[in-house]
Every structure is written in C-alpha cells, then in structure tokens.
C-alpha cells in the first residue's frame, strides 16, 4: 500500500488492506492448525493428543478470528485509532516525556539512524528506502524471520504510522504520536506497537521466545529515543566488561 | 585486567576480565587508584537484591586518573585525578537540571528490569545489579565513566586520596541525609547506624549546626568513632531496653527533631519484631528487616523530619499511620552526588571535615574478598576497606 492510497482511505474511513491481511492470516492459521490436528490424530499417543488439541485450537482461532487487542482499541475514537482497531494481534502502548518540541522530535524520529538506534538490532533500514523498515527476530540454531513495514501516514509534528507489507508473514503496525506536555516539560511521546503473527497465541509465544516482546521493545525504544535526543547518545552496555567476557546487551 | 567479581551469593572472586573501552563519545576510562566497599554492596552479596549475574564486576565508590578520553569530552584530559559519584547523571534531562541526579532519565540501559517494580527508572550505577544499569563496577584496574564531563570531579592537589574517595558515595550520601533535615539552631538529630554513611551524616549534621547529634549502633569501635570524630552522643541499642524511650528521655520527652536512617534492609536488632523480620526475610516472604527505620519513625518528634538513606526493597509492616498522625516529613533518595561533591571537596580543602578516618583497612585488589569478609562481619574494627588496584 502506498502512502497516497492510505491517506485517501483514511478520508473515506475505509482501510482496504486490513481485511486482505486478516483473510490471509486466517488461511495460514487454519492450515497450520489442520496440519497439526491430522498429524496428532495419526500418532495415537499422548504427544499426538496434545498436537491434535493444539491444532484444533488453531483451527478454532482461525475460524472465529478473535482479536485480543480489538476490544480495548475500539473504544478509541479518531480515524487513526479506528484504523488500528480494525487490525488483530497484540497491541502495547508506552509513553515518555522528552524535553524538546514536537516538531523537533518528529524530525528526529524520521531519521533512519534514529530508528535503528532506538529499536536496536530488531530493525534495519535500507539506505534507498528510508520509510521501509525490516524487522527481524532470531531464534535458536540460526532460525530467523524477517518482515517489512512501511511508513504509510504521517503528519509533521504530530504522528507517524507504519504497517506491514501485505505479503508479510508477521502482521503488525505501529504509531508514534507527539503531544505538547504541560508547562515547560517538553513533549509527550506515545508509541503503539502491534504484532500479529500467524497462529494466534502460539504464534505470539514463539515470537516472544525469539526475544520479540512488544512491551520491552516499546519501553526500551522510547527510553533510547529520549536519551538520544536529550544527550546525543544511547546508554549502552555494548562493550561492558565482566568475567563473562565483553558486552552485556540483555 | 584484574577485577573483583560477583560469582554467586556470598561468593566473590578476583578474575581476569577485558578492559573497558570508550563506548560512547562522552565516556572516559579511568585507571582506578582507590575504590572502597559500601554497606549497600552487602545486600546483593547476601542475595537480597536480584538481577546480579555471575561474573559481574562490583564496586561503585571510587576515584582514579583519566586514562582514555572520548572525543566529545570537553573538560578532562589524560592524567586528571578525579572522584566520581556512584550514580551516573547525564546533565541534560529535567531531573539532572533539578539537581536530582540519581533520578537521571538517561543513564540506565536496562529500564525494562526496573520499571515493572519501581514504576519508573532510576539513574544507572556502577557494579550494582542489572536492574540499576548493569555497568561494570570500580573494583578493577580500569572503569568506564559515561557522561564524563558531568560525573568526574577534579580533586585538589592538597587532598590525599582518602579525603576525596568517600565523596564518591558515603560522604555525599551522609551529607545529603543531613541536608534533608533542614537543621535549625537547637535541633537534635538522631542517626541510626555508625558505619561510613552514618558517621558522615553525623559529622555533616554537626557541621550544619545541629546542637546535639546522637549516633545509634552496637559495635563499640563504631560508637567510639561517633563520639570522637563526629562529636556525637551515642546509644548502644543492645545496652538499653528501648531506643525510643532512651531518645525520649534524652530529649525531654519531645523526641529528636530529625531522624536519619543510615542502616537499610539488613538492620540488626533485638526483640520479637526483629525475630519476625529475620524469619520472613529468610523465608523470602519479604525483602527487608526494617527495625531501624520503624524505630526512627516512632522516635521522631511530632512534625519532625525522617531522612531515609538506607537501601530498601519492598518492605511490608511499614507503620504509615505513625508518619501520618505525627505529621512527619519524609525525605529520601539515592545520593545526588553531583550536587554535593564540589562542596565536599571544598570542606575537605578548608579543613572543615575530613572523612579519611573511615579507611580503616587497605588491601590490594587480589585480597579484596578478604576485605569484604572483614567489612561484612565488622571484624578488626573495619569501617571501610579500601582497595588499591
């Protein structure tokens, strides 16, 4: 989806990409669940029964397409929030106050080097397309998954929104908003992250096991952003010495 | 390089570790010349503070010489002799701007470990759990100091190391505790604990004009230092039926105008409440033995000030009703060292206060585990062991 298309969709209140993605995810979830169900039933053992139950659960999830984050988001009223509410998956929100203006913070956020510093090794940005971010999770034995998001909407000094490409295995979106803080306190920055892997709860669990925990990612990203803007650097233990060796990135 | 590392609960070992490097442009690396144990180290050594990892370099109270300088450091050069506060400030956030340096927003790289428990994030500190930043500590030949322009304070040539070393933490903390008390003419200040921080609080309270200072502890040599160095009266809590009644008797029934807790979560004591605390702490049902703090709350006069310097976890059985009904003012913080260090060095240079008597023992880094043993068990009159890497 292009930036222009999304703006047009927002004006008419229709977000065309969400149903497509949802349908695709449901197919993957039902397919995975059905496969596990069949394998489990063939095994005729305790492990097989567990697999069959898991598969059955995934089929159920795929069919009813229940969304954990949907209920909370539906109470929100803006067009942007309605667009977020139309997506499924798990959504986290964190805020921080940074001692400078919203306009400056917006400019800093859209710098490619800022995004890679605040999200760390989870995000890479291609120099050719600074609005396309590649997200990566690493599991054991060299296993990894990547998916791409693109900035689809922005209002300088106010907000920025990105979404996964339609062909992404892991669905999701994010927004960052800037609002003036009271007095001379600067700007309140609110980051929302949504991640919606196929497989519902199982998919979420696997993503978390791979270290992609949206709550922690959002907390760290905002803290790093604040430090970067206010001090020019991000606090790090990158080469911290210990008897374990060098480096202490948790 | 050699460093003193936390291996497990009550297991410290000297290890070979990599040297620290300039990691951010405002860093310096110091060659550590003197570094000392702090009573708060005992909390994670004894296993009461979580998020230590095997191999962590400990130590947060230190001084040294600048060995390497980051490219954006403007006020320091190689060879400068400096003392460094234990909590790391950035100098740029609103909290540092308000002189509340231990609340700095920008120096803790592990906010996700602290925020769920505290509801917010403190500044980072050297060698003191990963929740408090995970920075390598100072009991090593070299240590990295972030935001060096804000955190390194040049030591005047006329001061010996031991006159400056304790400005890093014990002296700054004790001084802050006395400062919290807003001492006025005629005030009596009672201080629980005659270790390094308690003695510094007593001396500072005297310097700030307290008419009477009362030190409370059980070790004779520490009580002696309280009398001889801080000019305090003393109470041996094992020799009286009730510390609260003793204080009441000594203050004409009013109670001290201000009470300073320089003990923290591993308070010793007597009686059934202490036994209850000890049993619950052993069973991991709560984190703190709060005998000293509870005594201070009960003893303090109506409308008085309670200044809490001791380190605590998530204490239960906390007598909030007494604080409320007596209208006490509670002031507490981890030390805002950057606010006080210049003043402390000035006091030392002008001969108004000399903390060097805290350094009762000196060890090489290789012998640091033995130094901690002496310190923990208060053997041989040990108030502070100082290590010279």
Automatic annotation (TrEMBL), chain A:
Name recorded for this polypeptide: SRPBCC family protein
InterPro entries noted in UniProt: Polyketide_cyclase/dehydratase, START-like_dom_sf
Gene3D superfamilies: 3.30.530.20
Pfam families: Polyketide_cyc2
TrEMBL record, chain B:
Entry cofactors: Zn(2+)
Domain Alcohol dehydrogenase-like N-terminal: 25-157
Keywords tagged on the record: Metal-binding, Oxidoreductase, Zinc
Keyword Oxidoreductase: yes
GO biological process, one term: small molecule metabolic process
Any one GO molecular-function label of the UniProt entry: zinc ion binding
Pfam family, one: ADH_zinc_N
Domain of life: Archaea
Protein name: Glutathione-dependent formaldehyde dehydrogenase
